[in-house]
Amino acid sequence: MFLGVNPDRPKSLLYDTTVYVDILQGRFPATGETMLRAADAWHSTVAENELASTCALLDPEHPDTHAVVKEIAGIINRISAHRTIAPDRETWHSAGILTGTIARIQGASKADRRRMLNDALIFATARKYGHTVLTRNIADFDILQQLDPAGRVLFYKLD
């Protein structure tokens, strides 16, 4: 399901990390902003972790690092605690199975498996709580949805 193509509007969205990145960079599609306001927004501790780890990956000597870290921290601090979901034991198991299956099928490297696990955790969390994942990451979430059609994903493309 793609943003702007399907008339069905999800009642609740669990944001993938791409959503935060695109909003921070002013790239999130204008056509999707109405949907962001209309649907209940949910957040994942996995996406928070991905954002936080980006801060540590940035070169502290680069002149833009301080401003970028400040922006990312601002986004993380604005995420509502009562709208944030952490994967539980069952979700970790589901995500592990999905990740292992994809890694075997695609012959994924160890580094790719970690990225896939994060995506699988977000996907499995959304499925468990009845949310739709909102993401621009078509490559990873499309295969997750193919392996587990009970999960719902709403994709978007940059304008």
Protein model, in words:
This protein is of the alpha/beta class and 159 residues long. The protein has a single domain (12-155), classed as Rossmann fold (3-Layer(aba) Sandwich). The protein has helices spanning 17-24, 30-38, 45-57, 65-78, 89-106, 110-129, 138-147; strands at residues 12-15, 40-44, 84-85, 132-135, 152-155. Strands 3-2-1-4-5 form a five-stranded parallel beta sheet. Strand 4 (132-135), helix 7 and strand 5 (152-155) form a beta-alpha-beta unit. Helix 3 runs antiparallel to helix 4 (65-78) and helix 6 (110-129) packs across helix 7 (138-147). The chain starts with 11 loop residues before the first strand and ends with a strand.
Briefly note the CATH topology name: Rossmann fold
CATH H-level superfamily title: 5'-nuclease
Q: SSE order in H/E notation?
A: EHHEHHEHHEHE
Quickly give the CATH architecture.
3-Layer(aba) Sandwich
Widest beta sheet: strand line-up? 3-2-1-4-5
Name the features.
5 strands, 159 residues, five-stranded parallel sheet, alpha/beta, globular, 7 helices, Rossmann fold
Q: How do the helices and strands line up, and which of them pair or pack?
A:
Layout: E1 12-15, H1 17-24, H2 30-38, E2 40-44, H3 45-57, H4 65-78, E3 84-85, H5 89-106, H6 110-129, E4 132-135, H7 138-147, E5 152-155
Parallel strand pairs: 1-2, 1-4, 2-3, 4-5
Helix pairs in contact: 3-4, 5-6, 6-7
Give a nutshell description of this structure.
This protein has helices at 17-24, 30-38, 45-57, 65-78, 89-106, 110-129, 138-147; strands at residues 12-15, 40-44, 84-85, 132-135, 152-155. The protein has a single domain (12-155), classed as 5'-nuclease (Rossmann fold), CATH 3.40.50.1010. It contains seven helices and five strands.
